[in-house]
Structure formats: C-alpha cells, structure tokens
C-alpha cells in the first residue's frame, strides 16, 4: 500500500480538469463561460464539484420524470398504445397491482393471482418495492389510478436518492478526477431509463462498493457487493476481475476479506426468506432460467431473421459458454497486459460481456454500465457515442412495441427497423468495450493514467508490484522496477 506520506501527497494534488484534457469537455464548457482558467480556485466555496454534480443529477432526473408525464397522466392506466408512442413506459405502476402490493400481499410469502406465483425479483429489490408501497399514501377515497401514481412517485423519490449516491460515489472514487461523475449526471440514457425499473438501487450499492475498494476497505466493499447482489445478480461479477487483479498483485488476503464480506451480507439478507418462504425465494432464479429470448438481445435478432425459435435451454447453455469464453479472455488480458489493468476497466468489460451474451438486454440495463463506463473510460467523445446508440435503442424499442401492439394501425417501427436499433445498441456497447481494451493494451492512451496515476479505483492494488503475470519475467514484490522496465504496474507519480 502507499505510505501515509504518499497518500497525503496524493490527496493534496489538484483535481484534474476535464477541459484541459478533453476537447469535447472544453467545447461544451463554452455554454457556461469556457474552460476553467489557469489561476481559478476550484473546490472552494459552496459549489464544490460534488455539489454541482448532485444538482445536475437531480435536474436530469427531474427531466426524466417530466418525460414520463404523458404516461403519468393517462397512458399507464387506460391500456392504450400511447405509453409506447410517447416512450414513457415504466414497470413500476403496473407491478404495483400485478405483484400484489396494492392488495397488501407480502412478497415471497403470499401467492399472486395470474401468471406469476411469486414476486420474480431478488430479495433486496423486493424490500425496496415493499418500502415504497408503505410510503404510498392511501385512503378509502383514492382511486386505483391515484394510488398507482403515488406508488410511482414514492419509487421515483427513492430512486432519485440512488442516482445521487451513484454520482457522488463515482466522483469520489478517483480522488483527483471528481468531474468524471459529471458523465453519469449528464448521461441522457441515465435520465430516460431511471424510473423504468429498480436497477438504480443495485447500481447505488455497487458504486458505493467501488468507492470502498478505492479507499482500501476490502471488507466493506464485499458487504456492499453482497447487498447489491441481493438486489440484482450482476454485481457479483465484479469479484471475478478483482480476483484476477489480486492474484497478479499478490493481494489475495484482501480479496479473501472482500469475498467473506460479500457472502456474509448476501446470506444475512437471503437466508431468512430462503428458510421461511423457499418457493417464493427461488422464483427469481427459476424465472431467470425459464425466461424466453426477449427484447434487445442478439438472440432475438437471430430468431426474427431465421423465423425459427431457439429452445430456452439451448440459449441458456450457449449464453453461459459465451460468457465463460469472454471471461477467460478478459482474465488472459488482465494477466498478460504489460501493465496491470485498472479495476474499473475489467469491471466494465465483465458486466458488458454479461449483458451482451444475455438472452435479454432491456433498455434500463444501461444503468449497470454507466457508472463503470465513467470510471473505465472517462472521455466524453466515446461516452457520448455510446450514449447516442443507447438513446436510439430507447426510442426504437418503444416504437417497435407501438407497432406490434397497435393493432391494424401499425404505428411505429417495424421488425426490420427494430433489428437495426438492436444492432446499434449492441455495437455501441462493443465500441466502448473495444476502446477500453485498447487502453489496457496501450496504457499511455488511458486518460486516467495520463497524469502518472496507476489505479485510483484500485485501493490496495494502486501502485502494487506484480507477483504473477503471463509471458514475461515477474518482478518480486516490493522490488523497484529497473530503468526502462514497463512490465509491471508502476507506482503513481506523486
């Protein structure tokens, strides 16, 4: 670990100004007076970078709520096609009734009416939904529509808190780069998809975990990852790249602490429900296995182009195999790169691989990637290219549903057009993955390392020497690098 003196010096370094390194950020700053001057004092006064980004995040979240206004007023409740033509669909009001919250049913314990026997969400997300129902005001004179509106508002308020947590955590994970959080706060897909489902909750826990790891708190990281996995499955994937990096750096003890915290936290949340209501608890896992090919995935394009369905068991097996192959490739990249990759880079690649190979790629899944993308590749050009593809897909899926659900009117986007939207959606994510891989292979192009940093989000990995690597001599722990040696991870220049 860096010494106390190194840490003190690191904390005193001036914050990186995006307008000095990023031409897109410099051009965008003209809207508010241009780039920060050489002698400007930042980080002082009431409007610190984090506070500015919190205000921006709240403003963007509010704009996302306004975008849902046509549905809030009528479309969610009248069963009409306008929730698709206005691109304002949300699961939240529909599941308030459909999953028994309006009737006071207890998630996982009480059986539901209709196709779903139990709530098909992980335990901690079910608790989030239940708390929102408790916060939903109700009286005997309320109409069903009013109660669904209030339930959506209660959830929106809680999800706004999650959005703020994500922005703050991203801004503070890289100590010298607080303005990277602005990528999250201003992401258009972040605002558009924030209230479709409950994904922001798991995203907030994951972002907090990344912050804890960057501060060297391995057990706290594990606890938060365990809680995040109890809300959504994808956060557990972060343990994979962390294991590989800890093996390369000889920091397996810290990984053990993280793994212990994750398992303990997951069990504390899940075990009571597992023992009390085993059938309700396992619904999420059986639903994930039995779910058919769905929107946004390349599997759907294959079935639509060929006109032949694919057995769900075949898709499950193929998806797992593809994921294993991609993870093996990422592990090989992590061990074979001449300089150890940053944790955020590998975390982004693994989660992106999971989404790309999955049998469903819902529009709100972009919320899983946005915080990781801001840490892995904080460059506005690449980020906005990806976001443009995501916004196009956001519009495409609702226009496609409008076309298929609109009866004889066929108002919206036909099947061929929707396949183009899926292709853009997938290619945008693949593009950002390719840029991150290039940064790993060519670390001199990594914007985070331009100032001499090693891995600001890496915690104990930041500046640690390598003990394991592929295809080259391994430097002994604690041994300084020889002149001209680019094999290991050089300590940060303080």
Automatic annotation (TrEMBL):
Region of interest (Disordered), residue spans: 1-21, 447-494
Domain of life: Bacteria
Membrane topology: Multi-pass membrane protein
GO cellular component labels: plasma membrane
Transmembrane segments: 48-66, 150-171, 183-213, 219-247, 315-337, 383-401, 421-441
Keywords recorded for this protein, A-Z: Cell membrane, Membrane, Transferase, Transmembrane, Transmembrane helix
One Pfam family of this chain: GT87
Keyword Transferase: yes
Residue stretches of biased makeup (Basic and acidic residues): 473-482
InterPro entries listed in its UniProt record: GT87, UCP010361
A single GO molecular function term of this UniProt record: hexosyltransferase activity
Subcellular compartments: Cell membrane
Family, per entry: Belongs to the glycosyltransferase 87 family.
Designated name of the protein: DUF2029 domain-containing protein
């Amino acid at each position: 670990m860096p010494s106390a003196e190194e840490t003190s010096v690191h904390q005193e370094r001036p914050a990186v100004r995006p307008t000095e390194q990023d031409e897109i950020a410099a051009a965008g700053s003209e809207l508010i007076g241009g780039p920060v001057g050489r002698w400007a004092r930042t980080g002082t006064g009431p409007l610190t970078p984090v506070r500015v980004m919190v205000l921006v995040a709240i403003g963007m979240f509010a704009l996302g709520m306004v975008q849902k206004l046509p549905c809030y007023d009528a479309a969610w409740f009248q069963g009409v096609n306008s929730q698709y033509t206005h691109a304002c669909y949300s699961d939240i009001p529909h599941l308030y009734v459909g999953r028994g919250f309006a009737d006071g049913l207890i998630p996982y314990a009480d059986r539901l009416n209709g196709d779903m026997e139990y709530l098909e969400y992980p335990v901690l997300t079910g608790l989030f939904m239940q708390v929102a129902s408790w916060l939903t005001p109700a009286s005997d004179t309320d109409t069903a529509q009013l109660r669904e509106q209030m339930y959506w508002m209660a959830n929106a308020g809680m999800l706004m808190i999650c959005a703020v947590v994500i922005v703050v955590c991203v801004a503070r994970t890289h100590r010298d780069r607080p303005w990277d959080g602005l990528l999250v706060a201003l992401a258009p897909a972040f605002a558009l998809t924030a209230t479709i489902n409950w994904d922001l909750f798991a995203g907030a826990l994951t972002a907090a975990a990344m912050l804890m790891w960057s501060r060297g708190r391995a057990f706290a990281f594990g606890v938060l990852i365990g809680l995040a996995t109890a809300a959504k499955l994808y956060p557990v994937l972060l343990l994979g790249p962390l294991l590989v990096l800890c093996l390369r750096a000889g920091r397996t003890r810290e990984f053990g602490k993280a793994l212990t915290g994750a398992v303990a936290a997951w069990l504390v949340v899940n075990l009571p429900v597992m023992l009390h209501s085993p059938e309700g608890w396992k619904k999420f896992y059986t639903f994930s296995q039995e779910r058919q090919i769905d929107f946004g995935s390349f599997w759907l394009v294959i079935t639509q182009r060929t006109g032949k369905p694919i057995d769900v068991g075949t898709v499950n097996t193929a998806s797992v195999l593809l994921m294993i192959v991609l993870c093996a490739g990422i592990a090989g990249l992590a061990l074979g790169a001449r300089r150890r990759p940053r944790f955020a880079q590998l975390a982004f690649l693994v989660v992106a691989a999971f989404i790309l190979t999955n049998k469903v790629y819902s529009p709100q899944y972009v919320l899983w990637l946005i915080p990781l993308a801001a840490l892995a590749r904080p460059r506005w050009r690449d980020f906005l290219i990806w976001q443009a593809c995501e916004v196009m897909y956001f519009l495409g899926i609702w226009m496609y549903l409008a076309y298929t659900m609109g009866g004889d009117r066929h108002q919206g986007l036909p099947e061929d057009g929707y396949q183009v939207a899926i292709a853009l959606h997938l290619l945008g994510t693949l593009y950002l993955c390719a840029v991150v891989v290039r940064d790993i292979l060519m670390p001199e192009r990594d914007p985070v390392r331009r100032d001499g940093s090693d891995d600001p989000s890496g915690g104990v990995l930041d500046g640690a020497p390598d003990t394991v690597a592929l295809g080259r001599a391994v430097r002994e722990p604690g041994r300084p690098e020889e002149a001209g040696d680019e094999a290991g991870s050089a300590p940060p220049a303080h």
